[in-house]
Amino acid sequence: MKLSYFKKKKFRMEIVKKVKTSLGVFLLVVATFTVHVSAAGTVVGNESIKDTAEFKYEQQLAIEKQIKLEELIKGKKGSFVDPKSSLRSDGIFSTSSTGTYPTRYGVILVTTDGVSSGIGTGHAGIIWTSTTTVESFPNGGVQTKPNDWNTRYKSVYGVTTRGTTASQDNEASNWCRAKVSLPYNWNFWNTSIRSSFYCSHLVWAAFKDLYGINTDDDGGIVWPVDLVNSNNTYIVYSK
After folding, report:
1. Beta carbons within 8 Å of 91's beta carbon, 6+ residues apart
2. CB-count burial class (<10 Å; 0-12, 13-18, 19+) for 184
3. Residue ranges of domains in the chain
4. 101 vs 6 pLDDT, higher one
5. What per-residue confidence (pLDDT) applies to 119?
6. What is the predicted pLDDT for the residue at 57?
7. Is the dihedral of CA 142, 78, 166, 151 positive or negative?
8. CA 211, CA 164: separation in Å to the nearest integer?
9. Is the Cα torsion angle 84, 205, 108, 72 positive or negative in sign?
10. How far is it, in rounded angstroms, from Cα 19 to Cα 215?
11. Residues 6+ apart with CB under 8 A from 106
12. Any bridge partners for residue 125, and if so which?
């Protein structure tokens, strides 16, 4: 039987409560800082978390979100405009903001391709400079990469947050850059952690911590596609 996110969250809370009752306060403190506890009661802090039934269920939901997104914008790719890009003197958006690959600092990048980013369903990053992105991978954690998603991936979305300026987006990219060298976060449900990050968790945390903007509308794991689907973001580029 499928579990809703609310029920799953309640189930995890009950597990922690039982640990406290039977083993005492010390292990409760440990539990606060441990990673996801599977239904079998096993603490999972590495790639094996993807073998849990709960992860596979949420992953399937993320795949369904991706399919719906592709259907929604079918025929619109290449027609998006970035209103935060500079205008020409005649008031017309520059070419760089109307369908070409983004280079503006702080633009969020998302691919729905099946890449080896650890999370298993898509990947996310943020533009730090016109030629550099900040991303997180299982191999190496948070790191800088070439801003070459237009050739690296088949499906790419550039999105930006509502209610922020281009300067604020740039600050979000600097926030992510400051996390370079931190390890990968395999505890996909624990988005409050700031000592390690998975790809979409990193981008989400930047705007959440700096501006209080939540780009994950439905809670749980922050999937890359959530950054595109959020009511607090909009698409400025797609291919």
Report:
1. none
2. buried
3. 1-28, 58-73+102-238
4. 101
5. 61
6. 73
7. positive
8. 8
9. negative
10. 32
11. 126, 127, 160, 164, 166, 168, 169, 170, 171, 172, 173
12. 109, 135
Distance CA 121, CA 228 (A): 14
Burial of 225 (0-12, 13-18, 19+ CB in 10 A): buried
Residue 52 has pLDDT above 60, yes or no: yes
Euclidean distance between CA atoms 96 and 15, whole angstroms: 51
Which residues sit opposite 126 in a β-bridge?
A: 108, 134
pLDDT higher than 80, residue 48? no
Neighbours of 230 (CB within 10 A): 22
Mean pLDDT of 53-77: 74
Give the H/E segment covering residue 127: strand 123-129
- 92 with 69: CB under 8 angstroms? no
What is the fold of 58-73+102-238?
A: endopeptidase fold (from Nostoc punctiforme) (3.90.1720)
Say which residues have a Cβ less than 8 Å from residue 92's Cβ, sequence separation at least 6.
none
CA-only gyration radius of the chain, Å: 19
Once rounded to an integer, what is the mean pLDDT over residues 111-118? 74
How does DSSP classify residue 154? S
